Each structure stands twice: as C-alpha cells, then as structure tokens.
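Incident log, structure service

09:12 report received: a user says their structure output differs between two submissions of the same chain.
09:20 pulled the input from the user's history:
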Amino acid sequence: MLEIRNLFKTYENKPLLRGISFSVSKGETICLLGASGSGKSTLLRMIAGLEFPESGHILFNKIDLAQTPPHVRDFGLVFQDYGLFPHLNIFDNVAFGLKMRNLPAEKINARIAEMLDLVNLQGFEKRKVTDLSGGEQQRVALARALAPQPRLLMFDEPLGALDKSLKDDLLNQIRIILHKTKIPAIYVTHDQNEAFTIADRILLLHDGEIIRDGTPDEVWTNPNSASAARMLGMGNVIEGVVTSSSAQGGESYFIKTDVGIFTLNCKHNHSKGEKISLLLKQSPSPFRRGTCKARGEVEIKLKVEDVLFKQDQFQVKLRGGLVIHMKDAPQIGQIIRLKVQVQCLA
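09:34 re-ran on a clean worker, output below:
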C-alpha cells in the first residue's frame, strides 16, 4: 500500500502542496482531480522519485522511499505525450523495461504477447510507433508500463491529447485493465468526466490541499465545501447568513440570502449571524438521506438578466448571479419561477 504523509512543496517561493496526505490500497484506482497548476503532476513526480518534497513522507508497504532511486521503486508511469521511442518498433518499446531486467528472451516474448493482447494490439509487434494513431500509441505506452508488473501505476493526464471519441473508448479500456490486473493506480486529470468514470476514489486538489476524498458517488452527493461544489460545477453556490434557529440546539435554521430566505434542516451547529455557503440545485435533483437540505423543493422568483444558447438548451443568468438551464428561452427582464433544492456547505 502507498501512503503519502503530510507532503509540502513550494514553487517560486509560493506554497504548491500543503500537507498532502492519502493512501492507495491494493487494486484501488484513485484520481487526483484538480485544475492546471494545482500541483498534481508535481505530486506524481515526487512519488516516482523524480522530485523531492520539502517535508513529509512517501511510503510503500510501510517502507520510506526517501532514499530509494526512481528505477528501484518499481513504479510505472504513463504520460500525455506517450513517451515512446520513435526509433523502436512496438515490440521493442514494450520490451524496454523487461530487457533492462535482463529477463530471458522466452519470458520477454511471452510477456509482450500477453500485454499486446491485453491492450488489443495483437499482431502489431513489428509496426513503427510513428505509424499508429494517438489512441494506439497510448495503448502501447500502457502496455510498456504494465509489462514489468509494477507495484504502482501512475497516469499523468494520459488522454489529454486525444479527441473525445478516442478518449471515451480508451478510458473504458484502461478501467477494465486496471480492474483485471489489480495494480494500484493514481490517475491525474483536470477532466471531471475522466475522474468520475475511472476512479474508485476521487481526491479533489485545490489550493495545495485535498478538499474532498471519497467515492465518486460520495463526492457528488456531498461536496462538503463551497470550493468543492464550485470546482465540480454542481450548481449555484451562494452566501447566506443565519438569522435564527427554530429549536434550541439547532437542526432547523433560517438562512437569509440575496435570492430569498430558506428554512434549512442541518446537521451542523450554526449560530445566529454566522455566514454560510449554500448549494442551490435546479430541480429535479434529489439529495440523498443525511445531507443538509431545505424542506422539500423551494420556489423562488428571479429576474432574467441574460440568455445564452448552449446546443440543446439555453443557459439563463438570473438576478443574484444564479445560472440555470432551460429548454425554452425566456425573455430578458422576465420574472420566472424556479424550483431549487438547497444544501448547506458549511
């Protein structure tokens, strides 16, 4: 098992990673989801031994890897730009790591046949990598990473250079392969769809910190913070002030916002005058049991400020900065009624 404990890293005298901690269990695929420049790739490079943290620990099976050179860590890396050797054919690209271990020819041949079968490239052994499509090259890169049977596999934005149809197809193949081989994996991306498709667990990286860690279902159902909800584009995040509670000890609160006053059933303990963030989801969008929510659907009336066509629907901007989507375009200046569900993000 990989364990990351309290890693810190700065870049140009500014904090890049601040106390990062997480673990990856056997057979588990975790996804680090974050914007460009959030430190995702730097974190992978530190795990691989290509960069070093300023403090903190990286352990595998409880052994600190600080003094372990990259080539001894036995971790596989798959990059966005494939990293293939253009002067070698597919066989020799996939065989590279195996030959470095001085394995006998018969074992190398058998392993390459197994890997090319796994990535659906049987019969491609003698092809030049420069003759392949982007998706085929990425499958060769995956086969090369898998061939030495690494203890951990890491993906750094592996599908960023592919178009959507290729990306969707290869993403599903990678997911199947990871589940079949049971190799623990860290998948880095800024693409939310990739993360929710491939991950057993999603870690949201924002401002140098992991702000949410959970299964895809858990993360989407309960983002737990305004930053996470905004990052995932889950709905409208607005600010409110607690004006009072309906019972001593809390659980039901009145929240005043720019778009109305909401009665909120909440598991948090709020005090009068406290500022909190609320997530407004356009109905229908049912919340799961156990979340902090308003009592049923809430209807609000707001003025339309702008309308933008978005393929098969219209993006409508309302007073207070709220954005919703409608099948039919309203008129600018029109007052519309909107049903929303409200969740506390405190």
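09:41 both user submissions now match this output. Likely a transient worker issue. Closing.
09:42 reviewer note: The chain has nine helices and 19 strands. The longest strand covers residues 298-310.
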